[in-house]
Queue: 2 jobs
Job 1
Amino acid sequence: MIRKLILVGCVVAFGSQAFGHGDLRSRADKHAPAGLMGDHVHEPGEWMVEYRYMNMYMDGNRAGTRRLSDAESIAFGATSDPVTNRGASPSSMTHEMHMLHVMRGMTDDITLYTMIMLPSITMDHIRGPMNPAGAGSYFTTHNSGFGDTTIGALLRLYSDADDDLILNLGGSLPTADIFRTTREPTGGMMEQPLPYPMRLGSGTFNARPGITWKRYFDHGSFGTQFQTDLPIGRNYRDYSVGDEFRLNTWYSHVLTDHFSTSLRIENLWRTNYGGADPISPDALISTNVESFRGGYTLNLGVGAAALLNGHLLNVEIVPMLHQDLNGIQLETDWSIVASWSKSF
Ligand SMILES: [Cu+2]
């Protein structure tokens, strides 16, 4: 009896240590941290459905690496090249996104996916010196609807017992309405198009190639990913959003088969916009300025994942560590990404 108990104890203890030996890809760390995509493939015939929520919080302006108060942001625009923020300056913003992500394994090494996006964008502003509604008062604009639709194929180029190398041949379709107007800035007097960061999509077809290498260990997994977002040509408003390049590296630690935690470092480079929407005067507000869109951001990701009866819950908090922005822009303070997914 005692020998039996010891045996059971050993099996439990050993089981919790040496979990997952049989299948390293079915633990709580089977997907990358919540902020990333394109890191895994599915078996032939297998579907995955995911609901993903993201919110990005941006509070206060930044010129280069220097933080500016609302009054300083208005003053900055008086002498910047080009002159801007005469009508208003953004002061804070939340960029919320609901996403429906569907994946299907076609062969051992090819998985197709699509993602439908519903952004909801809210921006607070302070009125500038040339605003007919009076300088110094605040107003808020809001926009929401369908975003651009992501589609793509994941090609597993190499795989062995504990490695995956996956090429992402992705892109986005311009399904978002990019031209909407508002009367809020002038307190109802004039109708103006919403500026660039308030728009729901890029208006162009974008190529989004990327590549991910992932390695599984007994007690965790490591991954690195290079992912791009490259608009092709100009949209019908005669501009293109910036190119985006993301380099991510992460480690997920498996605490039990059903629970893991992760740390991630993200380098994000963005270029300025190309072309110009003919109705977006630079002098009005900094969010109309094409050359004030690029920059570099270093983010940290702290995440956790739980795998419960086949339901994967994945959450990540992403504080910004360092940001160097072209011209003047709202700084990104932090984001949260949470997802529920299930494969069947
Ligand atoms: Cu999936």
Job 2
Amino acid sequence: MANDTGGPRRVAIRDGVLTEPLDDLGRVRLQGSRCRHCGEVTLGRNSLCPNCGGSDLETIPLSDRGELWTYTVVRHKPPGDYRGPEPFRPFGLGLVELPDGLRVMSPIEGDVDSLRVGMPLTLKVAIHHVGPSGEDVVAFAFAAES
Ligand SMILES: [Zn+2]
């Protein structure tokens, strides 16, 4: 299935983690699941609540803004099929606290020396790499509000 621009098919880097369609990346949000029993919100499209074990969950779009709850700086290139820039550059990896009531692990774009706990962040959705069948793989990160 081609998208509206006639380009390659687009898929989320992890099934269910982004809202669809993926045609207009500026409108794509993280997707979560909210338990109708206990209210727990988790990242992605899930069928079981990790808090109460309930199975009555609804998918919801998550906020595109959050705060950096804590982070680390990855200074060594991960092994395997790491697809970041070459040569490798250190990058921030953070837990982003969303107002929806969950924290999401995410790459944090920008200068690693500018990262601060509590800084406001905005979701960035972009094509990350080309998959094995020529599809565009869409991934997310957070970056400082500009
Ligand atoms: Zn629950």
